[in-house]
Amino acid sequence: MSAQTPVWFIAAASSGFGKYIALEALKRGHRVIASARSTSRISDLADAGAVTLALDVTWPQEQIEKVAKEANDKYGYINHLVNAAGYILVGAVEETSPKEDYDHFNTNVFGTLNTCKAFLPYLRSTPGHRTISNFGSIGSWVGGAGYALYSGTKFAISGISEGLRAELAPLGIAVTVVEPGYFRTGFLNASARVSAAKTIQAYEDSVVGSVRRRIEETDNRQRGDVEKGCKVIVDILTREGVAEGKEVPERVVLGSDAPGVVRGKLERTEALLKEWEGVTTNTDHE
């Protein structure tokens, strides 16, 4: 790690992982620049010692770039960029409108992408250890009824992060995608999740309706402790504590419930390949 005090910029720090990563970094004596759509939403982080800036990741790129410059000007460098903005859109694919779909991708995918673009010139010019962490999900691995659009955004984030990692590794910047399982944040709160404006009874009587009800039942009962999770994330990004002596990994599959989801997908995919390989691979020119 650089001899300089690490500087973090955290997009979407008003709650959940963004907030608790900020608090964990501050606890370690690091400098934190926290952002939210309104700085009034992160006044508690300002009280804890963070610099706070307004940022909506769906703003035009020129505005995001101005925030990036202002953030870099605070201390003259940035070591860690954390992209934690995102929400879940609940509904069957037929139920969600094109506008709802676009807004979902605009926040979860394009917001992360554009924030990376805006901050990369400053990260590239910072010496020492630097990271970008983007938030995927166990939904990056498995799509499901009632949250297909959300999974689509998280599949995209994990794929983009893998490619970005390959691009930035030669420049000394480590990129990882954090893929949490169920953590007790406000993510599933009624005030945070977005449901399709239209519901279709045929889906309400099927698995989609069951998923809607299960989300409500799961809210505030998730197994994962976000503060413990963020301590692990900060350890990994700074290569300290439980991550001492290790490199920043390609992905952080976070939470006791997450590895089982990934292993299940790997097993199903391997079984599918074995079943169809003799058919689907017999496609070359003679």
Characterise this structure.
GO terms for molecular function: oxidoreductase activity. This is NAD(P)-binding protein. Helix content is 47%, strand content 14%. It is an alpha/beta fold and 286 residues long. The strands form two sheets. It has a seven-stranded parallel beta sheet with strand order 3-2-1-4-6-7-9, sandwiched between helices. Helix 1 (16-27) packs across helix 8, helix 3 packs parallel to helix 4 (98-125) and helix 4 (98-125) packs parallel to helix 5. It is globular and about 55 Å long.
Characterize this entry briefly.
This protein is an alpha/beta fold and 286 residues long. It contains nine helices and nine strands. The protein has helices at residues 16-27, 43-47, 61-75, 98-125, 148-168, 201-204, 207-218, 226-238, 258-280; strands at 7-11, 31-36, 51-54, 80-83, 89-90, 130-135, 173-180, 194-195, 251-254.
Features:
9 helices, globular, SDR_oxidoreductase, Sc_DH/Rdtase_CS, alpha/beta, 7-stranded parallel beta sheet, 286 residues, two-stranded parallel ribbon, single chain
